[in-house]
Backbone:
């Protein structure tokens, strides 16, 4: 349906229907230590608003969503829906999943009816309401189809129908559009907003988890930014723009810029950008999971751009089709390795970064190697250990055990794998995956 | 406002007859009729006065015998499903139950299936006192043990790997645990369960044939349950070639009917439950399934379940809260204590079981007396001949119901070989009796109690086990070398594969024991070496698993790999080593595991084969178990089964599992 409405979404101070107080969630790692995933979360969801939860992967945003709907119980603190304590999924709250979570052996109609079945709604009324919901989200004619026959966008529509058919007060969405292609995702966003604006769905509030900054600004009235390790709400940005919103509008872009700034400004505690902790120069420094080719690609992109070695993050992200989870590890890595500086939503290349972008393949490896040795203690350590051993070999377990003094096994494995990938590129050492052994390069690199 | 119309399928009236019903309705009626006939036959009275059960070789009886055999198979499948749904579910839902159940199932599936027949016959006869169902139950139980482990493991595995997101969706929609089980977990498990069930049934025809002739303690003769297996056994005894041919034809028809009317439709139907995100290129087709789907009565029978559910009062679950889906909550302190107690209990039970088994097998001294190892106590009625047993009984020797006569009992009756009566000497001199030359000297050596096993016999058993193991290894190796090139050749040609695949599956289902007599005749007539011509019988039925798995593996090599190989000029041995062997390795391992399991089981019926009066025996563990399957569980058959179970378990762990891990890590094509 064509969007001809220009209603202004005033920040209506509606009644609070979901409130979270002092929520903590702690998981136990296999080694037995505590991993704080969510730290002292407080938030309110009021009627009439769409709120986006923005954060990088590992920020606990999906965990928070599951605490809100009652799938997971918090370690401490409470979640209240209409002032009733939430301990398990309740009628009135519905959820849409990232990969649709449709039952493959049920038809579209049966999938949509499933929630009504458990509510004890009699068959005739169930069918009527399910058909109405399917009609609403535009899947007429597909009632007897099986999910296998549908495209991704259509499957997510079924996901929406299934959630909306129960007339929920609150609709919780876990990255609902991230598994869809760009065009389909845009289409569905627009239609959902349309249904919301024209009040054709009785839902009173929507909370969506996303890692796409533009999507958050496009859809939400408020954006909550979550940090990682542990997850804390570090910012609450109001988006008081009228809908429908234009991505190219200057006000829109300003909001996006604000959010980038909020996410890249280092605060005393941990933020989305440089994962600074007390182990700043120690072996236990966490390495961003960034692919070497992509790091260099990013640097090249900034260098060849018109900003003279400075790049606007939102523009870069849009131009390279990257969202938070793809972009931020790259800029973290660039900063960590000393090729760039991240300030206030911009990336500024340092002279070394410019030099890297302009060199040929072999020179690049040399520069990269130099920076790795100087700035990543783990890689320097590996190199040292290999040099001192008579046969210049060492099993990876040896380094893994050392890393486990600083972090859990899973994290240690990830860090070591990243270090190995970077080190191999820079020809600082070689790695035999079959035997799990590192060694110095043959030609004495 | 655009008019919207829901899909017409939704508005179709519930019940109406179509033209397909003309075929389906009679089929349903016939099926019910057959079930009734079979059941009536199976529940005749059977007690001490009932004459021995025999079958007749008249081919006109074959349809009825076929019906009875199919009936047994059908009941075994039902029992297996029941077991699977209860035990596997328990193992998946309860961590504590899991640590007991899974290893137990693992061990049980390594035990030879035909050994179970010996164990349970007397138990079931006791339970079904006075009724033929006792014997039927023993036979059905043996078939059950050939199917159930596979199915249970498959279901258990599906339950623990149910996709997390679907579990969360079910929790958010507030499905009760019962509803969740039937709407989510079971449907997810269906493709794998169906496949495993159908494969188990295919493999089961072999055991059906071998399990219809049952030795009953207290009766001299074996009891022949009415069925195709008994027919074949009698035909072999009487060396009746024509009867064998008729039996073979009957089996062919039965398996064909099963394949077309049951196997393929069910597998095609189970496609609907596959948790793939895209439609598979080749969907399993079945004309039978289409027939059922288009028939009105079949669909309303299917709706029956739903209709019944709806007639029950609906609990108003409007405000019923849903369950939580925590990621594994860390166990609290109390849980840990209960865990420790539970582990301790399990350990204690296991130790007690081991001790109990040891004393049962070796006797109270565990095969020792005053620090000395006790000698073996042989059964001197080596053919288990009932007439000889009676003669021994007549001279005062204790004789057992299974016709074994232990040396220690002879010693007891003759005061350690000193007072030997004339009649006794006569019996001892009979050439069928394996009496020691110097009775007094033999009796002077301390031996294990009557019927028990000695350590020297354990060694002997291990040695026999080694022989059988060697045979399994060698012949699986030879089949691999023979069938892999052929399988690859076929797999590379899709049209040939399409034709051959079902044939190979069919061959795997057809009981190979029917063909054993041919080997007997050939070996006996031409004095062929047994190790070369009798030993391979064990893989006769099992080798097809290797073939059709290799074909399947080859067919699924991605085209671009094959093309890249051609472009790079990969030829000859390099082509094999770099492309084909790594690519089909996972499929081969699957086939190999099944084939070797099948060979072990087959060894019991292939190391002792007969035709008429000719019997050929190969020394081996299978022959040992076959010999000691006297109709009652005894320490010797227990020893044989235990050794075979441990060998199979060891072989699987040390060899096949390593290959499987290798296949999973290095050779996956994704």
Residues:
């Amino acid at each position: 349906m064509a969007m001809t409405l220009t209603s202004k979404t005033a920040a209506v101070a509606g009644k609070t229907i979901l409130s979270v107080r002092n929520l903590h969630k702690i998981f136990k790692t296999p080694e037995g230590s505590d991993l704080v995933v969510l730290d002292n979360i407080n938030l309110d969801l009021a009627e009439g608003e769409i709120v986006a939860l923005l954060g990088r992967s590992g920020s606990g945003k999906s965990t928070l969503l599951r605490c809100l709907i009652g799938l997971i119980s918090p370690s401490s603190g409470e979640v209240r829906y209409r002032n009733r304590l939430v301990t398990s999924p309740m009628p009135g709250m519905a959820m849409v999943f990232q990969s649709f979570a449709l039952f493959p052996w049920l038809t579209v109609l049966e999938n949509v009816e499933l929630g009504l079945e458990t509510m004890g709604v009699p068959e005739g009324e169930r069918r009527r309401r399910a058909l109405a919901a399917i009609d609403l989200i535009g899947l007429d004619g597909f009632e007897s189809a099986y999910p296998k026959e549908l495209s991704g966008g259509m499957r997510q529509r079924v996901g929406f129908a299934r959630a909306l058919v129960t007339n929920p007060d609150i609709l919780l969405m876990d990255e609902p559009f991230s598994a869809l292609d760009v065009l389909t995702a845009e289409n569905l966003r627009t239609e959902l907003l349309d249904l919301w604006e024209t009040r054709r769905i009785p839902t009173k509030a929507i909370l969506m988890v996303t890692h796409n900054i533009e999507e958050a600004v496009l859809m939400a009235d408020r954006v909550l930014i979550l940090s990682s390790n542990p997850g804390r709400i570090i910012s609450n940005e109001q988006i008081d723009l009228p809908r429908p919103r234009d991505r190219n509008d200057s006000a829109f872009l300003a909001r996006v810029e604000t959010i980038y700034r909020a996410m890249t400004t280092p605060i005393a505690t941990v933020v989305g950008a440089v994962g600074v902790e007390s182990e700043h120069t120690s072996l236990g420094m966490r390495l961003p999971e960034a692919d070497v080719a992509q790091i260099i690609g990013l640097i090249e992109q900034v260098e060849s751009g018109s900003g003279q070695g400075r790049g606007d993050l939102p523009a870069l992200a849009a131009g390279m089709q990257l969202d938070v989870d793809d972009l931020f590890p790259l800029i973290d890595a660039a900063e960590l390795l000393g090729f760039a500086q991240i300030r206030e939503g911009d990336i500024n290349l340092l002279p070394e970064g410019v030099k890297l972008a302009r060199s040929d393949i072999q020179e690049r490896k040399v520069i990269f190697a130099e920076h790795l040795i100087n700035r990543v203690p783990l890689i320097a350590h590996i190199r040292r250990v290999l040099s001192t051993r008579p046969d210049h070999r060492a099993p990876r377990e040896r380094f893994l055990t050392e890393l486990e003094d600083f972090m859990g096994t899973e994290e240690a494995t990830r860090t070591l794998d990243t270090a190995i990938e970077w080190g191999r590129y820079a020809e600082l050492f070689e790695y035999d995956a079959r035997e799990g052994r590192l060694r110095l390069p043959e030609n004495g690199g | 406002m655009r008019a919207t119309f829901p899909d017409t399928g939704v508005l179709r009236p519930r019940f109406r007859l179509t033209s397909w019903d003309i075929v389906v309705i009679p089929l349903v009626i016939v099926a019910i009729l057959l079930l009734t006939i079979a059941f009536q036959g199976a529940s005749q009275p059977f007690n001490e006065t009932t004459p021995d059960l025999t079958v007749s070789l008249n081919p006109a009886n074959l349809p009825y015998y076929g019906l009875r055999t199919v009936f047994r198979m059908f009941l075994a499948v039902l029992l297996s499903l029941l077991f699977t749904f209860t035990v596997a579910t328990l193992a998946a839902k309860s961590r504590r139950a899991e640590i007991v159940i899974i290893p137990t199932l693992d061990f049980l599936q390594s035990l030879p299936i035909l050994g179970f027949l010996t164990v349970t016959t007397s138990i079931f006869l006791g339970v079904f006192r006075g009724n033929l169902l006792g014997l039927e139950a023993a036979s059905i139980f043996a078939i059950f043990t050939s199917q159930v482990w596979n199915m249970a493991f498959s279901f258990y595995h599906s339950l623990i790997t149910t996709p997390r997101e679907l579990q969360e969706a079910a929790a958010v929609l507030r499905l009760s645990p019962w509803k969740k089980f039937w709407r989510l977990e079971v449907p997810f498990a269906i493709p794998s369960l169906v496949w495993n069930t159908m494969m188990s049934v295919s493999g089961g025809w072999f055991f059906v044939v071998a399990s219809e002739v049952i030795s009953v303690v207290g009766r001299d003769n074996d009891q022949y349950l009415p069925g195709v297996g008994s027919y074949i056994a009698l035909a072999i005894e009487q060396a009746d070639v024509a009867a064998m041919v008729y039996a073979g034809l009957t089996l062919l028809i039965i398996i064909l009917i099963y394949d077309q009317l049951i196997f393929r439709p069910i597998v095609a139907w189970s496609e609907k439950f596959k948790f793939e995100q895209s439609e598979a290129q080749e969907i399993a087709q079945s004309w039978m399934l289409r027939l059922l789907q288009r028939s009105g009565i079949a669909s309303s029978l299917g709706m029956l379940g739903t209709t019944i559910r709806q007639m029950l009062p609906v609990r108003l679950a409007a405000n019923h809260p849903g369950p939580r889906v925590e990621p594994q909550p860390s166990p609290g302190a109390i849980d840990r204590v209960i865990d420790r107690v539970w582990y301790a209990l399990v350990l204690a039970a296991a130790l007690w079981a081991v001790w109990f088994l040891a004393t049962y097998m070796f006797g109270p001294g565990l095969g020792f007396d005053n620090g000395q190892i006790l000698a073996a106590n042989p059964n001197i009625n080596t053919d288990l001949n009932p007439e000889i047993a009676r003669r021994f009984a007549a001279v005062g020797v204790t004789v057992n119901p299974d016709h074994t006569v232990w040396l220690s009992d002879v010693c007891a009756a003759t005061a350690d070989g000193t007072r030997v009566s004339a009649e006794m000497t006569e019996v001892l001199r009979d050439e069928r009796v394996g009496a020691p030359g110097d009775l007094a000297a033999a009796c002077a050596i301390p031996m294990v109690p009557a019927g028990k096993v000695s350590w020297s016999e354990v060694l002997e058993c291990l040695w026999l086990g080694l022989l059988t193991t060697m045979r399994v290894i060698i012949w699986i190796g030879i089949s691999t070398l023979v069938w892999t090139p052929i399988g690859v050749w076929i797999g590379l040609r899709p049209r040939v594969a399409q034709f051959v695949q079902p044939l190979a599956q069919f061959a795997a289902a057809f009981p190979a024991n029917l063909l054993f007599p041919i080997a007997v005749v050939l070996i006996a007539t031409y004095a062929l070496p047994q190790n070369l011509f009798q030993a391979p019988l064990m893989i006769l039925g099992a080798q097809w698993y290797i073939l059709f798995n290799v074909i399947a593996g080859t067919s699924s090599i991605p085209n671009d790999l094959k093309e890249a190989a051609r472009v790079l000029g990969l030829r000859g041995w390099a082509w094999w080593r770099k492309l084909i062997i790594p690519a089909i390795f996972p499929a081969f391992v699957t086939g190999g595991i099944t084939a070797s399991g099948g060979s072990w089981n087959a060894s019991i019926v292939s190391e002792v084969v007969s035709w008429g009066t000719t019997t050929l025996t190969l020394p081996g563990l299978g022959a040992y178990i076959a010999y000691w399957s006297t109709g009652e569980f005894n320490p010797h058959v227990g020893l044989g089964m235990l050794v075979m179970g441990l060998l199979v378990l060891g072989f699987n762990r040390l060899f096949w599992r390593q290959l499987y891990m290798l296949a999973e890590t290095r050779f996956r094509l994704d």
